[in-house]
Design brief:
The chain is of the alpha/beta class. Helices cover about 45% and strands about 20% of the residues. The chain has a 7-stranded mixed sheet with strand order 3-2-1-4-5-7-6.
């Protein structure tokens, strides 16, 4: 049966089980880091962050939250960049799965400016927190349009400088490429199942524009980046 890319899929990924644990999760996090590094995913977020940083004085301390932080790799990279640029940053990783935040904590020892918390982004204590910059990489496609609109409204109210979102462009080439690559190279059953489904749950440009309009957001930039990523920068 032919696959339709017309609408977002509502199917559930294995990673959406917030109690999943063990080696399958650990292997998945390692492979996601590999994919983000070699397919340019990290660069999409870091490029956007550099643009935002340019407008903030170097001597000003800033707090950055990474939603759906996974292994914590992005925050470790940012910590190293901040050290090199002599910026003072407090880095907070948020994930709803405590097994994932534990993995991130274990792999971030020695980074004194990074903390990880197992929080639901729609609940306290996260709802009361405030940040200078919020990041979200491969995070937004886990939500329905309605949930994402609510999340954007909430994050916008708690963020001072910018919200940076990096997620997949739903496209046949993206789907079949990642399906082929993961079947060929992945050792994680979760990655093999979730990766192509992530593409089907992701967004077209018009869907992003609609979601942002529904959230009342007008001051933003939305750019396509390789490989099949949307780089969204929102200025609250």
């Amino acid at each position: 049966m032919a696959i339709s890319f017309t609408n977002r899929s509502a199917d559930v990924e294995i990673m959406d089980d917030l109690l999943c644990e063990g080696e399958v999760v650990d292997q998945t996090l390692r492979e996601l880091d590999f994919i983000n590094h070699w397919l340019g995913g990290n660069a999409v977020t870091l490029q956007a962050l550099a643009l935002v940083w340019n407008g903030i004085p170097k001597d000003k301390a800033i707090t950055i939250a990474d939603l759906g932080c996974g292994s914590g790799e992005m925050l470790r990279i940012i910590s190293a960049i901040a050290l090199k640029q002599k910026r003072k940053v407090e880095l907070i990783g948020v994930d709803a799965n405590p097994n994932i935040t534990q993995f991130a904590t274990d792999h971030s020892k020695g980074f004194k400016n990074i903390q990880f918390f197992a929080h639901n982004v729609f609940e306290e204590p996260f709802k009361s927190q405030r940040f200078d910059i919020v990041l979200a990489t491969l995070f937004t496609h886990h939500f329905s349009n309605e949930e994402l609109v609510a999340l954007l409204k909430q994050i916008r109210a708690k963020t001072k400088h910018a919200i940076i979102m990096n997620d997949i462009h739903r496209h046949p080439l993206a789907y079949y490429s990642i399906k082929w690559l993961t079947q060929l190279f992945s050792k994680s059953a979760m990655v093999k199942f979730d990766a192509p489904l992530s593409v089907m749950r992701a967004f077209t440009k018009n869907e992003w524009i609609f979601i942002l309009k529904e959230a009342g957001i007008e001051n933003y930039s939305l750019r396509w980046r390789w490989a099949f990523r949307w780089q969204l920068i929102i200025h609250p």
